[in-house]
From TrEMBL, chain A:
The keyword Transport applies. InterPro entries: ABC_transp_perm/SBD (IPR051204), MetI-like (IPR000515), MetI-like_sf (IPR035906). Its main location: membrane. Residues 62-243 form the ABC transmembrane type-1 domain. It is found in: Cell membrane; Membrane. It is a multi-pass membrane protein. The chain crosses the membrane at residues 20-40, 66-86, 98-123, 129-149, 193-214, 226-246. Signal peptide: none annotated. This is Permease. Belongs to the binding-protein-dependent transport system permease family. It comes from Actinoplanes couchii. Keywords: Membrane, Transmembrane, Transmembrane helix, Transport. Pfam families: BPD_transp_1.
TrEMBL record, chain B:
Gene3D superfamilies: P-loop containing nucleotide triphosphate hydrolases (3.40.50.300). SUPFAM superfamilies: CBS-domain pair (SSF54631), P-loop containing nucleoside triphosphate hydrolases (SSF52540). This is ABC transporter ATP-binding protein. Residues 1-20 are annotated as: Disordered. Keywords: ATP-binding, Nucleotide-binding, Repeat, Transport.
Automatic annotation (TrEMBL), chain C:
Belongs to the binding-protein-dependent transport system permease family. Gene3D superfamilies: MetI-like. Residues 18-201 form the ABC transmembrane type-1 domain. It is a multi-pass membrane protein. This is ABC transporter permease. Pfam families: BPD_transp_1. Its main location: membrane. PROSITE patterns: ABC_TM1.
Length: 255, 406, 214
């Protein structure tokens, strides 16, 4: 849930503009990482805690988590971006409002409920969880692709067609590049949703970082819980940060 | 070869053949939309000669933009034919067709994610030109529209002023040297002062490139100023009159046209004539400002006029003096009399000259050539004679009456 | 028909869970509204701290919900306190952001006129700025509520109250024939709660927006 609020008039600066902003998050994450490591090192871990809190185990959990997020996000991009493009083509224009309305209704469905329903239908395991994540995170990309394309100034499209660009050339050279910032924001939102929802995967047979957190809760082991929660949060913040960098780099200059 | 030579090359030869085949011929061109009883454009037939600016003018909603967009088939005609340069393009591939037709719209539509250079290069790229040729062409066009390529080629549209964007829009439309340009109210969204300047620039540019330009506007004054030919359109794009501005102003074909031109038809005609085209009063008494008062007085007395114009060494008007001023001059003419006002160039319109006369309170304009040298005097009466329409009107009687009493 | 029977049989539990859900959301949003408006006004008044406040509150939305719920357990124990704390943090960004935007769009000339008429700073804020910014702020609250209604389901995983417990009940009995009924019941009930809240906001908007800017 990143891009949720109403449009922002330009005169209000809501973001740090200086280049120093790119340094804040890496420094913060490094500090948190070192602090976590120092704190855990200072604890005397019992055997139960040691079973979860060792480098090998934790690395495996992080990798599982990233796999869930990456695979689901890639699938969502592959599905929702073309769908969004199709839904905004002239021939399918009447589809767009319907999709957006259904999408807004779907927003009210809680992630936990949706993913549990998907798993109930498809069984536990990696594939089902991916399926659930895809179902939950498709909307932001689909919606942002459609909105991104719809908000492209139609006089530019007219100009491009008037200069002899084919519909495909117009889409690839004008419409999509101009929609890129909005589409990327949607992808970033979906990615963060997927990282967050992937913590629930532990209830559906894929451990990931949710497993560490839930072990901490169930076994009442604070170090395990803290490590799990901080790792999951740190991972989400890191991925969000990297997505922000990619967004910045891919946004066409001149916009 | 200079930039302008290259651009003018094919256009110039076309202009020579104005009498030959028209560049654009529309035959019974019709556009009906589903669900609408009347067609939006109803059987428009017109020939558009090579190298001319043809202005489609009419009230909003009359279908003038639709008519224009039928030419590059952004809107597909329901029936009728379109001929471009003798070739029937009614069913030609629209994308290929459009690459042969320059296109400028009111919002200009510069691509914000392209640099100025990339914007201009759009059509050449579509046509598969090589990089070096595109680069040269971009520089050439930026020069042509008066923007320094070194400064502007790498800029983005958001870094330009409205007037600069408009120029880039025109440069982009000219990029592949299309014989035909379509312009849909290109100056519509620009402040009046900049618009005036851009219109003048546009006319100067057209002198060089000699394109066949279809120009849409709702502003009759703009139409008169820019058009070689004006088509006044009524509902459903029906042609109420298609003629030169002068003929439309002096012989409106219908009351509709008369109403559309509005009340100031005679005044509007002043926009059509240049100061250099009318007979000037060349009999003014003049003397050198570095000469003596005595010489000047002799000239003044022998001329039979009551005032004398002092010119400098290059023949440029400096001061007005009368006999009393000369008496008081004490030999130095540089401070005698009044400084001149209402100087107008032979290239200015009569409308401009009239305005100068009125604002300077002189009642007479001093006409000078490009270097500022005195050519003659232009007075109210001459302007009025020129505004007179071809029909006899009251001014004839006035002149006749005046001649008798003289 | 099975599902219908399930709803009938469990109506009592479902209803009490729904009431808990609404309460948790309402309390969280109430706290977030006060906190968010205060932060929003602060951010509006001081362009220097504005990006910081917004960066921190938007960071909150990035953190996985399970992690945020869990992280407060060592401090606050299980149950409602960590749930409400986490939900408040999730609710902040839309409210803070819309408060800043809403206050930022208030016409400066109106404020100048108010000052010219002798209104003091507090009166200007309460009588002019806040009422004019209110529709935008309220939209932020509405967005926050939508977000929080869904996330509150996860509170059940830290023994929190609400409809998440219905889903969790089904989740624990995965494979049993009742699982689907519990999950579906809980999920649909959450959707209904979300729609109810939305309706309330539409009404609130009509009732609390000054007539001149409606």
């Amino acid at each position: 849930m990143v891009a949720t609020t109403s449009p922002v008039p330009q005169k209000i600066d809501l973001e740090v503009k200086s280049n120093a902003r790119w340094l804040v998050m890496p420094i913060f994450l490094t500090v948190v990482g070192i602090a976590l490591w120092a704190w855990v090192s200072a604890q005397e871990l019992d055997s139960i805690e040691q079973r979860t809190l060792n480098a090998g185990e934790l690395t495996a959990r992080v990798i599982e988590h990233l796999q869930l997020a990456a695979v689901s996000t890639l699938i969502v991009i592959a599905l929702a971006v073309p769908l969004g493009i199709l839904a905004t083509r002239r021939a399918a224009r009447f589809v767009a409002p319907v999709v957006l309305m259904l999408g807004n209704l779907g927003q009210a469905i809680p992630s936990l409920g949706l993913i549990t329903l998907v798993v109930l239908a498809a069984g536990v395991g990696f594939k089902s969880v991916i399926f659930g994540l895809v179902a939950y995170s498709a909307l932001p990309i689909l919606r942002n692709t459609m909105i991104g394309l719809q908000q492209v100034d139609q006089t530019l499209v007219k100009s491009a067609r008037g200069m002899g660009m084919s519909p495909m050339q117009t889409l690839l050279r004008i419409e999509l590049p101009l929609a890129v910032p909005v589409v990327l924001a949607g992808i970033r939102t979906a990615l963060i949703l997927n990282i967050g929802t992937a913590t629930l995967a532990t209830f559906f047979g894929v451990q990931a970082l949710g497993y560490v957190i839930f072990q901490g809760i169930q076994l009442d082991r604070t170090p395990v819980l803290i490590v799990g929660a901080v790792l999951a949060s740190g991972l989400a913040l890191l991925v969000d940060y990297l997505a922000g960098v990619v967004e910045h780099v891919l946004t066409p200059r001149g916009l | 070869m200079t930039a302008t030579d290259q651009i003018a090359g094919p256009g110039a030869s076309q202009a020579a053949a104005t009498t030959a085949e028209p560049m654009i011929r529309l035959e019974e061109l019709t556009k009906s939309y589903r669900g609408q009883k009347k067609p939006a454009v109803d059987r428009v037939t017109m020939d558009m000669p090579r190298g001319e600016i043809i202005v489609l003018v009419g009230p909003s909603g009359c279908g003038k933009t639709t008519t224009m967009e039928l030419i590059n088939r952004l809107i597909e005609p329901t029936s009728g034919r379109i001929h471009l340069d003798g070739e029937d393009v009614t069913t030609a591939d629209p994308d290929t067709l459009r690459r042969r037709i320059g296109y400028v719209i009111q919002q200009i539509g510069l691509f914000p994610h392209f640099t100025v250079g990339e914007n201009i290069a759009t059509v050449p790229k579509l046509l598969g030109w090589d990089k070096a040729r595109i680069g040269n062409r971009v520089d050439e066009l930026l020069d042509l529209v008066g923007l320094d390529p070194a400064v502007f080629a790498k800029r983005y549209p958001k870094e330009l002023s409205g007037g600069q964007r408009q120029r880039i829009g025109v440069a982009r439309a000219l990029a592949a040297d299309p014989p035909v340009m379509l312009m849909d109210e290109p100056f519509g969204a620009i402040d009046p002062i900049t618009r005036e300047r851009l219109q003048n620039e546009f006319l100067r540019l057209q002198q060089q490139v000699k394109k066949t330009i279809v120009f849409v506007t709702h502003d009759i004054d703009e139409a008169i100023k820019l058009g070689d030919r004006i088509a006044i359109l009524g509902e459903q794009s029906r042609i109420a009159q298609y003629d030169t501005p002068a003929n439309i102003l002096s012989n409106p074909a219908s009351t509709y046209v008369e109403d559309f031109i509005g009340s100031g038809a005679s005044l509007k005609r002043l926009n059509l004539s240049l100061v250099g085209d009318v007979a000037l009063d060349t009999g003014a008494a003049t003397a050198r400002i570095d000469g003596t008062a005595a010489e000047a007085r002799d000239t003044l007395e022998s001329s039979g006029r009551s005032a004398l114009l002092l010119l400098d060494g290059q023949g440029r008007p400096q001061r007005w003096v009368d006999a009393r001023d000369l008496d008081r001059a004490d030999g130095d003419l540089r401070r005698a009399g009044e400084p001149v006002s209402a100087l107008v160039d032979t290239g200015a319109t009569l409308s401009y000259a009239l305005n100068e006369m009125l604002t300077s309170n002189a009642g007479v304009a001093l006409v000078v050539d490009g270097s500022g040298a005195f050519q003659g005097l232009l007075d109210f009466e001459t302007v009025m004679v020129t505004t007179r329409s071809i029909q006899r009107d009251s001014s004839d009687f006035y002149r006749a009456a005046k001649a008798v009493t003289d | 028909m099975d599902f219908y029977k399930h709803l009938n049989d469990n109506a009592e539990y479902l209803f009490s869970d729904a009431v808990d859900h609404v309460m948790v959301v309402a309390i969280s949003i109430g706290i977030a509204l006060v906190l968010g408006c205060a932060l929003g006004v602060l951010a509006h008044r001081s362009p220097r701290v504005r990006p910081m406040i917004l960066a921190v509150t938007s960071t909150m939305l990035t953190i996985p919900s399970l992690a945020l719920f869990a992280i407060f357990i060592p401090l606050l124990g299980l149950g409602t306190p960590p749930a409400v704390t986490a939900l408040v943090l999730y609710a902040l960004l839309p409210i803070v952001r819309n408060t800043v935007v809403g206050l930022g769009t208030v016409d400066q000339n109106v404020l100048r006129a108010a000052r010219g008429m002798g209104m003091g700073p507090w009166r200007r804020f309460a009588r002019i700025e806040l009422p004019l910014a209110w529709p935008v702020v309220l939209t932020g609250v509405r967005v926050s509520t939508q977000v929080v209604v869904g996330i509150a389901a996860i509170a059940a995983l830290v023994n929190g109250p609400g409809l998440g417990n219905e889903i969790f009940r089904g989740l624990r009995s995965l494979g049993s024939p009742f699982a689907l009924n519990f999950v579906l019941g809980g999920t649909l009930a959450i959707v209904v709660v979300a729609l109810l809240f939305d309706t309330v906001f539409i009404l609130l908007r009509r009732l609390t927006t000054a007539r001149g800017i409606r």
